[in-house]
Amino acid sequence: MNYFYILYSPSANxxxxxxxxxxxxxxxxxxxxxxxxxxxxxxxxxxxxxEQYHTKNEALARExxxxxxxxxxxxxxxxNKKS
Length: 83
Prior knowledge:
Layout: E1 2-9, E2 14-20, H1 24-31, E3 46-53, H2 56-69, H3 72-82
Antiparallel strand pairs: 1-2, 1-3
């Protein structure tokens, strides 16, 4: 399965938007490991939103769509719709 997902870090007060073909648990573990890159400086990333897709291209397209919003307010509306 392919996933579009949004993570949140309370210590950074930031969202991370991505997609993966891995299991979400494994992907979050990688984000929380000490590495170079946007998520590497924090180890408290939690999954706040996810969508499943049949293909990698669909998940990637959704990631690009949401990133193009460039709006924290719109991202938070999407996350809160789920609740």
